[in-house]
Amino acid sequence: MTEVLQHADADLAALYAPHLMFDTNEPYLPHALGYTIFRIAGLSPSSKFAIEPLGALTIEYAIYYDWDIGHLYDLEHVWVHVGAMGEILRVEASSHGGCKVMDIGEGLPEFSSPQVFRRPSSLPGLSGHPVLYVEAGKHAHWASPAHMTEADRQKLAVLCGPLAGIEGVHLGNPFAKRGAYTARPRDHRLARLKMTTDAFEPGHSYRASSTEVPLLPWPDLEAIIPQRITDIMTRLETDQPHFAAIFLDCGDTLIDERTEEKLPGSEVVIRADLIPGAKEMMDSLKAAGHKLILVADGPRQTFVNMLTHHGLWDHFDAHIISEDVGVHKPDVRMFDAALAAAGLTRDDAWRTVMVGNNLSRDICGANALGMTSIFMAWSTLRTHEPANPSEVPDYRIDSPSELPALLDVLEMLTKYRCRPFQR
């Protein structure tokens, strides 16, 4: 066996490491490469594949990215098969869950210059590396960009554009499956929001990374990935602009006031029907990890009765009720109490939304503090015509079913760090 193969594992890994070429518009470059060297057949410690060296050894490179355009966490692989004389026999790489040979001719990929020797007769030394092309956003490997068909490019444009962020936090990997990190609904939403913000159009021209990527033994890389994912999710809370809280009225926003049944001789409502679509809307907002705060006028027991009956009381993270606060909307003390319950101050008001059916109370009060105001125009019990500019809502919806999609659009605009709408 050639002396080349007697080097330490770290030297061998550096000697044969692939040179990765990235799309010029690629937003997500790798954080580190982990390597494992196989001199006999064995199971990969980082992928689903069994490794069988074609020659003297196979070097597996696990390429870790914080982000794929579809999810937080991405781990791709390259396998370099090395013969007894130190020659590269074959290079394989991951591609959308599969493994394919990197071949531009003679079963071998492109090489950096000067080219790695391909057969024993070319032996003076090792100074080149296999060159692989990384698919924009998704990080699948190609031996040559010319191998991508027009259909491949069209599909990639959709994945990097309209479908960016579709998955949130990746949970189908071994780290998540064994509980090394977990993700809440809010983590998924913020991850999706970041990737949607990072959506791009592939350029289909390529460049090498301008920064050096660390090369580590796989156990070292494996040890840092779960904490890194957890840290990223934590940082998204402050780094990724988003709605910090959604404030909701109750009557004719969630509950149909015309169906209210009151305790005889009292203003306390015993029960009432939901507006069509209100339960589904609340379930959707909760599933998206929004912080939900009830901001309503009336006796506390009214809202306990109505919302508990429909399984919605516990959807709220806090309940700001006029009977408890001592004032009614649009008094700013109601909205200050709601902000405080969400862990916010007036400086954060632009990152909150107030949804209500009453222009003079819900909309006027929200507008006074700079919240995004959304008028729920489902009911005709109260006027739909603003009495003055302070009652003009930022947005209007006619049913609860419209709210989740509207919030998705408006939350994207928070990246500009200003109110989504200026009156």
Explain what the structure shows.
This is Putative hydrolase of the HAD superfamily. Keywords: Hydrolase, Magnesium, Metal-binding. This protein is of the alpha/beta class. The protein folds into two domains: 3-239, no CATH class; 245-416, HAD superfamily/HAD-like (Rossmann fold, 3-Layer(aba) Sandwich). 27% of the residues lie in helices and 24% in strands. It has eleven helices and 22 strands. It has helices at 9-16, 150-160, 174-177, 185-197, 218-239, 278-287, 300-309, 322-325, 332-341, 359-369, 403-413, and strands at residues 19-23, 32-38, 42-43, 50-51, 57-68, 71-82, 88-95, 98-101, 110-111, 130-134, 141-142, 168-169, 206-208, 215-217, 245-248, 261-262, 269-271, 292-296, 318-321, 352-356, 372-376, 395-397. Strands 2, 5, 6, 7, 8, 12 and 14 form a seven-stranded mixed β-sheet that branches. It has a six-stranded parallel β-sheet with strand order 19-18-15-20-21-22. Strands 1, 9, 10, 11 and 13 form a five-stranded mixed β-sheet that branches. Strand 10 (130-134) and strand 11 form a beta hairpin. Helix 4 packs across helix 5. The longest helix has 22 residues, at 218-239. The chain is elongated. The chain starts with 8 loop residues before the first helix and ends in a 10-residue tail after the last helix.
